[in-house]
Amino acid sequence: PTIYVITPTYARLVQKAELTRLSHTFLHVPQLHWIVVEDSPSPTQLVSNFLADSGLTYTHLHMLTPKDRKLQEGDPHWLKPRGAEQRNEGLRWLRQKAAADGGKGLAFESAVIYFADDDNTYSLQLFEEMRYTKKVSVWPVGLVGAMKFERPVVENGKVVRFHTGWRPNRPFPIDMAGFAVSLNLVSANPEAWFDGNAEMGFLESSFLQNLVTMEELEPKADMCTKVLVWHTRTEKPKMKREEALIKQGLGSDPNVEV
Ligand code: UGA
Ligand code: MN
């Protein structure tokens, strides 16, 4: 089965570095189709050129986050959900393609959808764990929620609760990196979307609660005992010297893409 990976991304100094790292992981994964959704009013040159040279099978989409839903300069990073409209655009594209496929089902038969943010770290094993997802599969996520890891707790092969330090009674206290869903299930439940107005920590639940129950979750990664993905976050580069140099007319050549 094909894995459709949906990645929201937005322009910032580290964007090309993040996409480079991510693409080098994906190049090692068979049958992966990368759906890159830019948070921008139109596709950018940087991402267009990057994807064309990436060697990956990809689809390049864009969807600008409406201003009232977007973080403003100075807002704490958790105030509003990030990437929601972009993931929804990816879902819209996939549902439409699957429907156009007209039930012949070959290209999309048993396909799997994974939401991979551009800054996390993914092991290759993770993709083999998710590849045979029937409905929704789940696994631990490292370095998230101010903990070493969060994970579903499995008893007798079933998820019975979640190991998390914060609001464990959320419908699905799982980070975006901790689950994959089958395309068939998503097509069969056209009302399942990410709620761009979801309260902090409820973005994943807003989507998953329209698709499954906890009892139906398929635990992967050795019954959720292995960490195969890490919620890493990239430091924002300092530009103090650059700004000082710009004032002297000696800034780095703006024609060089970073
Ligand atoms: C955590 C989760 O891991 C995210 O999946 C979830 O979307 C987010 O919280 C949330 O609650 O909204 P975090 O590391 O804080 O993640 O979020 P980012 O990595 O900054 O953003 C998630 C994705 O959205 C990234 O792929 C990023 O490139 C993209 N993004 C971010 C945009 O497309 N537009 C933005 O303005 C900001
Ligand atoms: Mn992140």
Proportion of residues in helical segments: 25-40%
Largest sheet: 7 strands, mixed
What order do the SSEs take from the amino end to the carboxyl end, as H and E?
EHEHEHEEHEEEEEHHEHEH
**CATH topology descriptor:** Spore Coat Polysaccharide Biosynthesis Protein SpsA, Chain A
* Spatial extent as radius of gyration: 19 Å
What is the β-strand count? 12
> What spatial form do the alpha-carbon principal axes imply?
globular
Number of domains: 1
CATH class: Alpha Beta
* Residue fraction in strands: 15-25%
Classification by helices and strands: alpha/beta
CATH superfamily, called what? Spore Coat Polysaccharide Biosynthesis Protein SpsA, Chain A
Query: What's the quaternary structure here?
Result: single chain
Q: Average pLDDT, to the nearest integer?
A: 96
Strand order of the largest sheet: 3-2-1-4-10-6-11
Bound small molecules, by name, code or SMILES, are:
uridine-5'-diphosphate-glucuronic acid, manganese (II) ion
Distance, first to last CA = 35 Å
Low-confidence stretches: none
Number of H/I helices = 8
Instruction: Tell me which CATH architecture applies here.
Output: Alpha-Beta Complex
